[in-house]
Known about the structure:
Elements: H1 2-35, H2 43-50
Amino acid sequence: QEETLHEVRREVYxxxxxxxxxxxxxxxxxxxxxxxxxPCDSAWMMLYTRGSD
Length: 53
């Protein structure tokens, strides 16, 4: 019974860690996409459309 309890606790811990990792990755992706310029406002597009810095 002691070993079974240990296994169950380990499974719960693993699930909690996995969920925390998913939340962190989702947040990281969300922040990364928010930091990107829209293509028409990006520096390379301004250079392409206007022809100079």
